[in-house]
Amino acid sequence: MSENASHNYKVHVPFDDLREWIAEADKLGELKHASGYNWEEEIGMAAELLQHDEKAPVALFDKIPGVPEGWRVLTNFFAAQRMNMTLGLPADLDKVGLSEAFLAHFREIAKNPLPYEEVTEAPILENIIEGDDIDITKFPTPVWHDRDEGRRYIGTGSFNVTIDPDENWINVGTYRVMIHSKNQVTFYISPGKHGRIHRDKYEAQGKAMPVCIVVGGDPLTFLMGCTEIPYGVCEFEIAGAYRGRPLKVVKGKHTGLPFPAGAEIVIEGFVQPGNRVEEGPFGEWTGYYGSKSAEPVLDIKAIYHRNDPIIFGCPPQRPPEEQARYRAVMRSALLKDELQKSGVPDVVATWCHEAGGSRQLTAVSIKQRYPGHARQAMHMAAQCRSVAYAGKYVVVVDEDINVADLEELMWAVCTRSDPDKSIDIIKNAWSTPLDPCISPWDKEAGNYTNSRCLIDACRPYHWKDQYAVVNMPKPETVKKTKEMFSWLLEK
Ligand SMILES: Cc1cc2nc3c(=O)[nH]c(=O)nc-3n(C[C@H](O)[C@H](O)[C@H](O)COP(=O)(O)O)c2cc1C
């Protein structure tokens, strides 16, 4: 995991849409078919069970009571060997290797986003529903958590497509989408997200906001949609460049916005300024129920869907869980990239820990070069775009610590930091209404900020050579011990 490690993996993404991805997961022996379970309760129960297990299969639910056979729900896409398959990388990479290899490819392709290609014939156009026929409730949208009290979120593994009203660029972002009636949904976007900036601009200008919500895009495009891709960059073009072939899109009849030709379900409509309705609460990635607030209403003008559509479900759960798993891989990579670009030298490794939903506990290791290097790294890390939102703890350690190993990280915190000298606090930082630590009265006042605890758990630079020696055998002793005594551990 050195800064200059080169990863010449040939990236091969073997799918263009969700169905091709399912076929690949099946080849890996990781697909389970589940038949006859209901959306009201049972699919959500299964999702909770599967998503906490990093080796668990992906489940495809069919024959869901009350909906036509073939209308399906998929959940737990990111686990076991299919994590690597989804990113088009070799199966033998562990999660840190996967993140590093993703970054190596991402760095190359991000220089040249690949424009999407418009087509006029596409599977998503198999069914177009408009006018009085619109009924978004007819899809088997699960109630994902048993305390959601019947609220149905069709958008979890989804992404919203919007266009900046001033600058004209297309953004793609994942935000939870709740069904309110046959022709109305809401989506919740936290302050500061690119989609939220678009939304706020339309609202301020008193203009209707065009939106397309893609439910059941291919998993790679979904991952780009929920990753902190820089401002002004269209995630469709990053997904295309990553894959090495342009994403095929069609343009919505009402909004003109692009959406993937091979998507399963697309909801197209407009948000009228000021039109809001109560949304949430919903079980969230923090492991708690988050916000309940008045959110914009999308009036649906068209629903597009393939024959036998599949809802792609990624409901957030209490971490560590599926979402934390994929976000750790993606976000740790982007953080490393941002830190290096910001000029912090000798960043060895980064890990956004699953225990904090991949946002709240960030670890960075460096090879210290000068006094103050550790503080520089930890302050930069706390405010990089990839981890700035909703962060809590940032820990910087020396390069001998495996940042992805929570026990080792905490050992470094316990033995190389002194609370009085090693901790800096940042106040009033970018957080979210979903943060369970923000009091009801601060939320009421619109104060969605929190503080950051930055822990310098590096040996102090100016006396690091006098620091207590780590109690572990020398490499040659480790080798000799293995040769002499491995038999003691044999079962
Ligand atoms: C399953 C899932 C659900 C998410 N739901 C929301 C949400 O409801 N609201 C939100 O602001 N961000 C949500 N996110 C995070 C955003 O997708 C993420 O921050 C993304 O980078 C935002 O993109 P943007 O900055 O282009 O708007 C979710 C992410 C995932 C993986």
Structural class: alpha+beta
CATH topology of the largest domain: Pnp Oxidase, Chain A
User: What hetero molecules are in the model?
Assistant: flavin mononucleotide
The percent range for helix content is 25-40%
Give the strand tally: 21
Which descriptor suits the 3D outline? globular
Poorly predicted ranges: 1-6
What secondary-structure arrangement, pairings included, does this model have?
Blueprint: H1 18-27, E1 31-35, H2 42-51, E2 58-62, E3 72-75, H3 82-86, H4 95-109, E4 117-118, E5 127-130, E6 153-155, E7 158-163, E8 170-173, E9 177-181, E10 184-187, H5 194-205, E11 209-215, H6 219-225, H7 235-243, E12 248-251, E13 258-260, E14 265-279, E15 293-305, E16 310-313, H8 322-341, E17 347-352, E18 361-366, H9 373-383, H10 385-388, E19 393-398, H11 406-416, H12 419-422, E20 423-430, H13 440-444, E21 449-457, H14 475-485
Parallel strand pairs: 1-2, 3-16, 4-12, 18-19, 19-21
Antiparallel strand pairs: 2-3, 5-15, 6-9, 7-8, 7-11, 9-10, 10-15, 11-14, 12-13, 14-15, 17-18, 20-21
Helix pairs in contact: 4-8, 6-7
Flavin mononucleotide (FMN) is lined by residues 156, 171, 173-176, 188-190, 193-195, 226-228, 314, 316, 323.
